Each structure stands twice: as structure tokens, then as C-alpha cells.
Amino acid sequence: MLLIWNFRMFNDSSFNRAAFMQLPGNSFLLCLAFCLGCASQSPNINTSSNTGGMPATVGGNHLDPSDNLTTGGSSPYEPPKPLPRAAPELSLDPKNLKSTSIDSIAELRGLYPLETREGQKYLVTIGKNGTIFGRGPTEDHNHYVLGQLTKDSQVIAMSQTKGLLAAVDEQGVYIRALASSEPAQRMRNINSRITAMDFSPKGESLLIGGADGMVYLWRFEAEKNGEDKGKPERLLQRYPGLSSTVSSVAFFPTGNFFMAGDWLGDIYAWQRYDADRYAGEYDRNISGKRFLTAKTVRTRVRKGRGVGLDKIAYDPAGQFLVAGFQDGSLELWKLKGTSLEYTVPAHERTIYSLSMEPREDGRLRVVSTGKDGHLKIWHLKVYEKEIEEKAKRRSWKASLQQDLAKKDLAQESVNSVDQESSNLSLEEAMASQAQPSPTPEMIKRRVVKHELELEKDISMPGVVAATFLGEGGLYAGNKSGKVAEISLPGES
Length: 492
Hints:
The chain is mostly beta strands. The protein has helices spanning 2-10, 17-21, 25-40, 220-224, 232-235, 396-416, 426-432, and strands at residues 57-58, 61-62, 98-100, 110-115, 121-126, 131-135, 143-148, 154-159, 164-169, 172-177, 185-187, 194-199, 206-210, 215-218, 236-239, 246-251, 257-262, 267-271, 298-302, 309-314, 320-325, 329-334, 339-345, 351-358, 364-370, 374-390, 442-459, 463-468, 474-478, 483-486. The protein contains 7 helices and 30 strands. Strands 3-7-6-5-4 form a 5-stranded antiparallel beta sheet, with no helix packed on it. Strands 8-9-10-11 form a 4-stranded antiparallel beta sheet, with no helix packed on it. Mean pLDDT is 77; it is low at 1-73 and 285-295.
């Protein structure tokens, strides 16, 4: 990066390259050293793993929390503000929907929150036979038929923005709109078994994970509108990187990047190919049939240790990632700097679902369900902790500054001696100066830590899913199709 920076400066039209190259050898080196020194002073926007998101300190004294560089100018103790969400586009009129009196469905396959353009909230449930039911609006609790999937559809995902459902059957991936008679839109160009899916926040693309370790991005809306004709690699983008079956995929709330994990426990983050300022308009396909990713758009978040990933979810503010693994453990990751904050053994076995919403006080609340038949409610705990660590070695710049200060002090000593010791040389005066105390091997400092603290543990045999319905509360469903509202801690 440093070489790129200097190269750009050197190629700047306002920079006199000829005059720079004609400088004497020593002057050339001094100018180069100056460039290196300036580059080393550039701020690092990526929080390193050894900072832990701690407040800035000077001489061991904490600065005001509002000056914390790692939180974007806000205190880590203040609840973060959720990122803006795309406005719902689906419009539903209960008068035009078929109502039903069922209380449960056979073998629950999906449980999703839905908000319409009119502000009504529905709880969408899907059973084994593929019938899509909507419970709501919240005030009447009636059940309405919202559509039909093919029988035995698997790996279901839903777009809350546009009211779309994606599912997998024997013919491949298909997308169907709720409460609509339009035919399903299908993708048949993926030859691998589909294992995970997630819609983009705006509902125009579908993220697909395969058993081949590949992540696919299907721009189904662009395909439906006739965009990029004759360019199939733009409509179905491929993102390699994982070495095992993809087990979970999730778009970041802003939609500019996404994460995916596999059966080995690896988690990678990718930037979309069209995430540049020109939306990929000027990208050229030089690989023939498909785009290939580069390291510049992919980064490893977590290196697996043989325990597969089950679910990943983001908080509404986009600051934390919670990952659930097949051994029942949960990991809390801070996204800025991608640092692991906390690990807790949440369930005895597989994690079935993860949901996150802010509490009434703004603090993050996490709900997890597992194969052990338990639903657990957690909240994000923020506190300070004093840690002891090895002192960092002084940089060459700090050493040079200390040597210069030492020389100035010695010069003052030479100028202040009396006439009798006027023959004292500068070197002797420098040697006579007291040696600075050595840097301590260990130092103490206070850091801001984050943990998941258990609020409530509910035994629900057969529970397979749980989701928040905005201010409407928390709902959970079991394998038999029974859906119940869960009272949250602190509520009457």
C-alpha cells in the first residue's frame, strides 16, 4: 500500500518528476525518507486485533469517550443507531386475501416477519406441503393464505422488502411473490446442491451457497428486466473461496458486501463485483466464461477449526456479527477490525436460528434456538476491563526523536558549564547524561469488552425457529407447526 501511495504521488501531474530525479543522491534519499515518514503518519482505519476497540489513551489516561476513534466518534456505552432499512414495497389488503382458521401447520419449514407498505405486520409461516400462511395484521391475528410453494421445497429465504420467497425444489432455485399469481422465476444454471440462501436488503438479488463451496449471486431483477443480455456472468456471479460445503450466507444490512461460512467453520467476507462507484459498468470479462474473484474483494474473517458453521446474523446497526456453530457455541465478532469479542457454549448441539433486535433501551438482544430444544435470549453487555500486556517496541521514529532530544539536552549542558570545564566536548556531555529508564516489559490499560449475557432460557421441545416481529414481540415455532408468542424479559 505504501508503494502504491508513493507511486500515485510520483505520477501526480502536479509533481515535478524531472526535478525530483535530478536531486543529488543524499537529497533523493532524504525526500524518500520524508515520503515514508508522511505515509507512516496516515491514520489506520482498520481497528487492529490488539486494540480491542479500546478508548484512545494518552500517557495512560483515558480520553473522553466521545473521542473514541474506534466507534466512529460515539461512546461504546451508548446504544448504536440501526442502519436505515429499505422501505417495504409489498401492499396487502386483508379483504382480498383468503382467510383460514388453522392454528398450526404440518412440519414448520419457515417462520419470517413481514411488514407491508401500509405498516401492517404479518408473521409468515410455511409448512411441508408448501402453503404460505400470514398471521396478522397484528391486531386481528387471523390467518391468511399468501401463496403456494412446490411440495417439499427446501432452503427457503424471504425478502421482507419486496415480499418475495426463494426456495429450492427438484428443478432448482425459484422465486415467487407473495399474494401474487405471477409465475415463478427460475434459475437452472447452478449444477451444485443448494445449501443456503439470502436476499439482498433491497430485494433485487439472491445470494446462493452451494455444496461445491461456491457462493453465487443471482441478479434476478436485472434478468427479469432484460438487463445485461448476452452476459450471463453478470446475471449469475460466482464467488469462490470456501473449501467445503457452504452452510450459511448473509448480506450485510447495507448490501455492499456479504459473508458466508462452511462446514469447516471458515467465514469469509466478499465485496460485490458491482460495489464500485460505477456499479461494475466498466468491468471487463478477461477470463472467458465467468468472472473470477481476486484477493482484493475477499477477506477471511475466521479460520475454521473443524467445527462447522450453522448460522450467521448481523445486528441492525451493522457493528456486530453473531455466528452459531454445530457444537452449539455462539461467537460474538466486532465487525470493525473483525475481532472476536466473546465465545459462549449456548446450546448442547446444532444452532437452528439466530435473530437480533434492539431492546427498549437500545441495547442489542440476541435470540437463539438449538437442537437441544431450548430457546435462549441474550443481551449485549458492555464493560471495561483492565488488562496487562507486553509493551510495544519503540519505532525508529521514536528512537530518533529521543536521540535528538538527548543531543539538545547535552548541548545545553555544554553551554551552561563554567569556564574551568569549557574543554568538555559534546560527546562527553552526552555520555554524562543520565540514561533513560528502560521501557517496562508489561503495561496495564483498560479496554472496552463486549459479552453475551443470558437473560432467559426457555425449554421448548422441538423448537426450530424464532423471529422478532418488530414491536409486535418475539415468536417461536416447533416442528409440529405450533407458533407461540414469547414474553421478553422485563415485560409484564
